[in-house]
């Protein structure tokens, strides 16, 4: 014995499709979006302490040894305005917020430990 669901598709007793009516495919598909670009800037900055700057789809990262790191500014500058100060990959900033979100809210971190948000 078979039953029909609300779309009119036939199911067997186990609930599996006995037949399924598919709608017609779209006449054309929209083109696939381009792959996000990641650009490496091989510009070591002795004052900032970073080896490379990376432009990613979400913003710019400053890295040292593959970890977010910058000593003279945020290690991440988001396109939405978010800023993160990091040292050797850990959120850290003395006496000021280590994270400033796009909405202006702030988080205070030292050596990877949240002090207040």
What does the model show?
With 117 residues, this protein is mainly beta. The protein has a domain at 39-116. Helix content is 0%, strand content 37%. It has strands at residues 3-4, 10-11, 17-19, 39-41, 52-56, 59-64, 67-68, 76-78, 83-84, 86-87, 90-91, 99-100, 106-110, 113-116. Strands 4, 5, 6, 7, 8, 9, 12, 13 and 14 form a 9-stranded antiparallel β-sheet that branches. A hairpin with a 2-residue loop joins strand 6 and strand 7. The mean pLDDT is 81.
Short structural description:
The protein is mostly beta strands.
Order of helices and strands: EEEEEEEEEEEEEE
Number of helices: 0
Helix content: under 10%
Largest sheet: 9 strands, antiparallel
| Straight-line distance between termini | 61 Å
Into which percentage range does the β-strand content fall? Answer: 35-45%
What value does the average pLDDT take?
A: 81
């Amino acid at each position: 014995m078979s039953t029909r669901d609300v779309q009119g598709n036939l199911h067997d007793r186990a609930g599996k499709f006995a037949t399924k009516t598919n709608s017609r495919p779209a006449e054309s598909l929209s083109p696939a979006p381009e792959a996000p670009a990641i650009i490496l800037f091989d510009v070591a900055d002795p004052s900032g302490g970073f080896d490379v700057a990376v432009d990613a789809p979400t913003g710019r990262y400053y890295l040292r040894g593959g970890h977010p790191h910058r000593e003279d500014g945020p290690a991440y500058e988001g396109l939405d305005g978010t800023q993160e100060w990091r040292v050797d990959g850990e959120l850290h900033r003395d006496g000021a917020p280590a994270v400033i979100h796009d909405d202006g809210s702030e988080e205070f971190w030292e050596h990877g430990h949240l002090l207040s948000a």
